[in-house]
Amino acid sequence: MRRHTLLLFVLALALAGAPYSFAQNTTKKTLPDRFGSWVSTTPPVKVKPAEQDAALLAEAGLEESVTRPYSNGSQTLNVGLKNFHDPSGAYEVYTALLDADLEPSTVGQLTAIGHGRLIMLIGNFLVNVDQPQLASTADLRELSGLVRKSADTTPLPPIRAFLPQGFADGTQRYALGPAAFRAALDKLGDSEFAPLIKEVGFDFGAEAIFASYQKAKESGVLLLIDYPTPQLAEQHLRHLDAVLSPAEKQAGTTVERKGSLLSLVLRPPSAAFAEELRSGVHYQTEVTWNEPTHKITDPPWVVILGRIFIFTLLFMGITIAVGAAFGGVRVLLKTFFPGKIFDRPGQMDVLQLGLSSKRIDSRDFY
Predict the structure, then answer these.
(1) Domains (ranges, CATH) in the chain?
(2) Sign of dihedral through CA atoms 321, 326, 327, 328?
(3) Confidence (pLDDT) at 168
(4) How far is the C-alpha of 175 from the C-alpha of 170, rounded, in Å?
């Protein structure tokens, strides 16, 4: 009995660990053995995240982090890869790594270079290349293409497209939870708004994005919070407004709602500046039907009239043919079978009211 129990326990542990082992093998196979003129002779090595980044990475859904060295002659290049549960989590960490000193890279979209490293967001993968200047742009593009073959290509969060144009590069911050929200406030210098974190409602599916704007001599931070429904947005609008301090409200920070989207301009220099930012938000409410639909297109009126005439003539022809067939069959039956099918006065009964003394003769019907 004990032997069977032990066997079942070991089998359960093996089945529980199978998905994790599969994820590990998939991540390690994502980094290629070679790209361009760079070759790696050692397998990827699992890396433990730094303690200060543990909360953010756990919130973003980090599944595994690996690194692999590549060589080209005497030069060495280290490539790190973080595998997240979905692209939204990878995008959260990608924006957390951005700063004003990073510049867009020519390797592709959603890439940033600076501080001696290249950051690439590829689906649910976040790739970090140390000393990217050692490799050519063509080699780095080939690396990106090879990693993309194993990436989850689910679209990124729609809220990123709601931001108005003109924000300072490297200031956009996406948050799926309180860890990224707090990190964004600290990075943008707005840590006094930390009480908002408890009232955002991340447990109800909320997601937020920050961006810093500067126009002329005025600057401010725009915060957008998107909710699954307008009802949740209205509910949390009141909660957020309640935790804003009188000093913050006096400075012009207000919460406004449009559909399921809340907007706050943190410490705006003027009411006109805040209104200009809000007017530039690319957000429109839409009604979506979940039921399948089809588009009805009417043919030209000439075709409709033609079909009416054709089907009318066809119906008339069928009517004449059926009438002639019925009459012809009746005549034939009366000719070849007289008095046996139709002309049977002896078997015909007629109901009479007796209003007259003359009895009706059924032969008078023929």
Answers:
(1) 20-148 (3.40.1000), 158-279 (no CATH)
(2) positive
(3) 92
(4) 15
